[in-house]
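JOB MANIFEST
job_type = single_chain_structure
chain_count = 1
residues = 321
[input]
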Amino acid sequence: MNRYCASFFARCIFTLAAVFLAGGANAAAPVEESANAAPLTAGGLPGAPDKKRSAAEQLFDGGREALLHKDYAAAEQAFRRAAGLGYAPAQSALARFCLSGVAAPANPDEALEWYQRAVEQGDADGQTGLGLMYAQGLGVEKNDELAARLLRQAAEQGNPLAQSSLGQFYRSGRGVESDEGIAAEWFRLAAIQGEVVAQNAIAAAFRDGRGVEVDEVEAAWWFRQAAEKGDPEAQANLGVMYRQGLGVHQDDIEAVYWFRRAAEQGNSIGQYQLGVSYSEGLGLEADAGEARKWLGAAASQGLSEAREYLQSGQGPGPLIE
């Protein structure tokens, strides 16, 4: 598996955990308030029962509410009780909780058990989570064919993270025959639902003509969707579009804005481009010290372009080892 592919699935795992811990029971979308949700006690668990909803559903709602208040102990307790009652969404939620490591050390073995129970009931979140575990070899032996099969089952149910991940399988030829056109279609379906990794991927597809016709305007639009949500890779990519005038009016000031946002999140391309901007006075006043700072940060992450720039004499001085 190449470095980009590994990075892609690592980002998917991060998305799975981060959105979940932000309060989403579904790994791909924020929780919507339910008019039938049971009232909660101070500990985040259901209070008076709601006869319209099962005990498991009320426990699950209590767990989601506890997550919104970052009461992880109450959330885990609620999910565990609902999962024990056989409620598949709670089983998937508990599995994600076991992987997150927020209330206790991460436990992939227990996560695997709960995901498997959810998958037996056809739960899309469970299929996605288990598929990503097999894609990463996280707590299990890596199995691309099984991962692709699980992700397809979830993707066909409309799960955007599964759609995004399946797109990467088709792009890289993991577990399926490589097909850029099919990859782009899965990325597009996930991107429409707001999945950030897919938005960056479909933007790159339009920029590079991978499975779709080159369309720089469409590429810039999708990069912006992800960049405005805070995705550093998309921010760096959007900055390059502005620097080069691809799909947008050429604007060095706007490019620097996006490079800085990416760089401050540790993105090496953003750091490199910001360093070049300081070195050459593109969109801001030249500053050799700031140039060296950002180029050095990118070089320290292994970005060869930054190291070469510093050592070539183009920049503010040679890199000091």
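[summary]
The chain is about 65% helix and 0% strand.
The first helix runs from residue 3 to 21.
exit_status = 0
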